[in-house]
Amino acid sequence: MIAEVLKVFNKLDAKDFRMLTGIEIGMKYFEWVPIEELNKYTKLPFDKLEYRLKKLLRDKLVVRTTQPYEGFQIYFEGYDALALNAFVKRKSICAIGDEIGVGKESVVFEAIRQPELAIGELLPVIIKFHREGRTSFKQIKRVREHLGEREHFSWIYAARLAAQREYDIMCKLYPQVSVPKPLDQNRNAIVMELAKGSLLSKTKLVDPECYLDEILKQVKITYSLGVIHADLSEYNIFVSEDGVQLIDWPQYVTPDHPHADEILERDVSNILTHFFRKYDIKRDLEKVLEEIRSGEKIGSDSVENGSRGFEEEDSKEGEFEAEEFEAEEFEVEEFKAEEFEAEEFETEESEKSTSKKET
Ligand SMILES: Nc1ncnc2c1ncn2[C@@H]1O[C@H](COP(=O)(O)OP(=O)(O)OP(=O)(O)O)[C@@H](O)[C@H]1O
Ligand SMILES: [Mg+2]
After folding, report:
1. Which residues touch 51 (CB under 8 Å, ≥6 apart)?
2. CA atoms of 230 and 227, how far apart (whole Å)
3. Ligand 1 pocket check: which of 2, 108, 181 to mutate, most ligand atoms within 8 Å of Cβ?
4. Which residues does a 6 A CB cutoff place in the pocket of ligand 1?
5. CA torsion, ordered 215, 216, 221, 223, to nearest 10 deg
6. Residue 171 backbone zone (phi > 0: left; psi -120 to 50: alpha; other: beta)
7. Which residues, in sequence order, are CB contacts of 28 under 8 Å at separation 6+?
8. How many angstroms separate the Cα of 302 from the Cα of each of 71, 218, 305, 348?
């Protein structure tokens, strides 16, 4: 669990991060990174390496095998620690709070960020740690296509590529499409603004027609920008008095995808089914799809207009009120970034080791 990472994070020093990065580099070429390679990547002598490895093994940031030779892999938690260190160092976050969501392929934490130029209030953000390689072979297969000729594959690349893919598409869509503002990405993790309100699945809307129109409008803008969400449902939409926000983008496709039509239809159908079952609102799927594809305006209202009353249905998981994020009430672990420059080290060292590929 990442909660374990948070406990040990502040105890990690620059050499621990160097070790983790060394294993990370080695995993590009080896399923299990031999200790001799770590010596090359980290420039640490063997006795120091052994001490560091014991510490990382104890903290469950690293895993070891002895067969067919002694080798090491980073755990997701070790990878999370590297991403977290990068975010702290870049001042993308200054503290992390509780886990607020677990998806099939991610774990999401609330965090806070210093405002620009350190003026004004702390900003509530979230960190989404991708978990693709561990839980979904389908996703691995999908990401594998992006890997091209790379000889060795590990979950690290699946999770990193999914995070990169999600971050890049959110940057492309924001702000035309209503998505939480993407703020930073490193390895398997993304920092983005906290979505406003609560999940559509957990909310009882007072004016559902208006929200349905707004969601379909967002789908249409997204489509006009050459993107289809591909996992749209009441579980990936936040609703608030300000409107709607669409989350969870790594599986998006473009309209030239061989199944683009079916995927768009499934997205829209999920939404219409939700509004039909919960609010008895009927819309003709074909007509809605036609409108989305035509680029014509859907519905009568825009976000800014009309009454947008809503109530939260499930107070346990739906509660997301801004007040909760006031500094004193927000339980956080403050982090210090380690000096170690992971990125520079990686580039330098990975170039040197390209000749050492495993077959
Ligand atoms: N920007 C955000 N603001 C607030 N909560 C968020 C945000 N992003 C994600 N979450 C929370 O984390 C949960 C999981 O996030 P997300 O849907 O992006 O991940 P996922 O693993 O792909 O989910 P799944 O595959 O199960 O749909 C969401 O259901 C939501 O509760
Ligand atoms: Mg989701």
Report:
1. none
2. 9
3. 108
4. 100-101, 103-106, 108, 126, 128, 180, 192, 194-195, 199, 235-236, 247-248
5. 120
6. alpha
7. 150, 152, 350, 353
8. 58, 10, 6, 51
Collect all residues with Cβ–Cβ distance below 8 Å to 242 and sequence separation of at least 6.
Answer: 196, 197, 303, 308
Residues 305 and 307: their CA atoms lie apart, in Å, by: 7
- Residue 181's CB is within 10 A of a number of other CB atoms, namely 15
Taking the C-alpha atoms of residue 293 and residue 309, their distance in angstroms, rounded to an integer, is: 30
Report all structural domains of the chain as residue ranges with CATH numbers, in order of start.
2-79+336-356 (1.10.10.10), 95-196 (3.30.200.20), 198-318 (1.10.510.10)
Which residue reads 């208006």 in tokens? Answer: 210
Q: Which residue ranges of the chain lie beneath pLDDT 50?
A: 135-137, 139-140, 143-144, 147-152, 299-309, 315-330, 341-359
Helix 35-42 / helix 342-352 crossing angle, nearest 10 deg:
120
pTM confidence score: 0.82
Cα-to-chain-centroid distance, residue 297: 31
Mutate to test the pocket of ligand 1, among 128, 138, 181, 191 (most ligand atoms within 8 A of CB): 128
Q: Which two tokens stand for residue 349?
A: 């060292």
Other C-beta atoms closer than 10 Å to the C-beta of 173 total 21
Residue 256 has a pLDDT of: 96
